Backbone:
């Protein structure tokens, strides 16, 4: 069993109120793999340029992630993104995006990558997501991420992918935009009617919610006194979520299993934001992950002692 | 035992994407009392004008709320607020604020109001909150709400009130602004060092969080497909929270009790936003409240089945 993730492998320049990095390893597939590899073997599919270093390949391979499907274009440059975060880290401005090797990327998955048990389509052009879906041999569980750009310029293609995956992992604004509905709960229920059996709403500092036909679940973000760099938090979360599903090959991927998967994704994402880029998760231990999952369970539980109210 | 609340009793004009009301009963003390009265006897302290109708007095008196401390100024006009909400109800614009009888309001509490077990200082001028605190005979538990205006123009007075109450009930932006700290968790811990033993962070559609020296707790808002009017949600929440404390006179108001209080506040607030103004909560039943508290417990729990992660 294994997880295949298709998405960006990038160099990021990030400035936050707490510091900056001029060039660090990033990208959705990178963050996803670092998290997902705690649960199962991950195969990363995506292009890099001749500038991609052996050191960064080594980080990608943390916990046995397989990079056979990372396409190296020797005379190309790796995808580059630069952004700056505001005071409370809830707003960010993109300063530069250089698609580079991503501009002409055509995914060609190896047989082992096509044979994956779990497939995660990170935020790339919907036509590429469709192409990857077509190449795979019927994964047990598939999920996708996307962004406002694709809803704006490639909505029809995106809807086609949505109709074919099991789970959407989108933020609240994307869920609202895709459905043109102001209520996230109502919007998510509409998305379920398009095909998926689960919608996971990413809510940044407020955590995440799950909407399925079986019900609703929400989990706050792990409370941190200091967030250094939110870049990649959503992809780390998705890596934990999809990894957890992959680690349970014999279980139905129902509401209850996804609540547990979200807890692991949340714990992993909380570590990701404690330092820049991949720095923290690259040296994270399994015990640290489990500890925060247990903390989250404790921080969200309350007892329902019956109380006679005045009527 | 009883709860005293000091705050606005108002007429509101509200426009949301789902309809509008040109003049309806509102105000922080009103919404607070409608919720708090499920738990204990509430006494409302605040001024109204000669225009305040008997019908609206009757709504204020729902579930036995005592209005002896509502000061009627026959030749004055009741506080008036007009606002309009944006598409997803997360933004709102104040169109008009007429202080009217509130402009020269000087709280004069009756003996029974001073003898309260629980005191809630709704969002009014901090010097008035201090004045009320001075009049009361040492309530067992006190909490306050405030707003950005007072942090801007009366911060020193507000800090004096903060130092003297047990609990702050503020939204995330106010918590950040009051401490000038970007992390709500870090900011709340700083506020605890000023005196209070609990900070409750109101997070709108994302629910609420609790920070005490004992730990952290967060609860999402009850998921609704349709929110009609968010006005008064925070005050309804506070009424449930403070009412729950009042309903447990023999128990220490510790972290665990406040987690339960937040659940009741959250359930009550979810009903408040289902219709305009006080319309829904005025006819709410105790069973309906308990039902959503139980739903919330179920919607936030997940099992922590141990899982061996790859390391």
Residues:
């Amino acid at each position: 069993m294994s997880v295949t993730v298709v998405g960006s492998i990038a160099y990021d320049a990030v400035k936050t109120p707490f510091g900056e990095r001029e060039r660090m390893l990033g990208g959705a597939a990178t963050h996803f793999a670092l998290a997902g590899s705690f649960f199962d073997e991950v195969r990363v599919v995506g292009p890099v340029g001749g500038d991609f270093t052996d050191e960064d390949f080594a980080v990608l391979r943390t916990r046995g992630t397989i990079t056979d499907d990372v396409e190296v274009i020797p005379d190309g440059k790796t995808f580059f993104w630069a952004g700056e975060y505001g005071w409370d880290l809830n707003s960010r401005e993109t300063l530069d995006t250089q698609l580079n090797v991503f501009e002409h990327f055509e995914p060609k998955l190896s047989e082992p990558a096509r044979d994956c048990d779990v497939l995660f389509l990170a935020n790339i052009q919907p036509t590429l997501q469709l192409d990857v879906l077509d190449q795979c041999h019927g994964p047990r569980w598939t999920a996708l991420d996307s962004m406002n750009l694709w809803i704006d310029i490639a909505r029809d293609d995106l809807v086609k992918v949505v109709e074919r995956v099991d789970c959407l992992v989108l933020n609240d604004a994307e869920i609202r935009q895709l459905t043109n509905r102001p209520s996230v709960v109502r919007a998510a229920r509409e998305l379920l009617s398009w095909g998926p059996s689960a919608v996971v709403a990413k809510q940044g500092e407020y955590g995440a919610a799950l909407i399925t036909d079986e019900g609703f679940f929400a989990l706050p973000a792990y409370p941190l006194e200091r967030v250094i760099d939110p870049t990649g938090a959503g992809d780390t979360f998705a890596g934990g979520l999809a990894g957890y599903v992959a680690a349970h090959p014999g279980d139905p991927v129902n509401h209850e299993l996804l609540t547990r998967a979200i807890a692991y994704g949340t714990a992993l994402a909380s570590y990701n934001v404690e330092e820049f880029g991949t720095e923290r998760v690259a040296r994270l231990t399994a015990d640290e992950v489990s500890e925060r999952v247990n903390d989250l369970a404790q921080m969200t539980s309350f007892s329902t002692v019956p109380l006679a109210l005045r009527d």
Observations:
- Chain A has a mean pLDDT of 97.
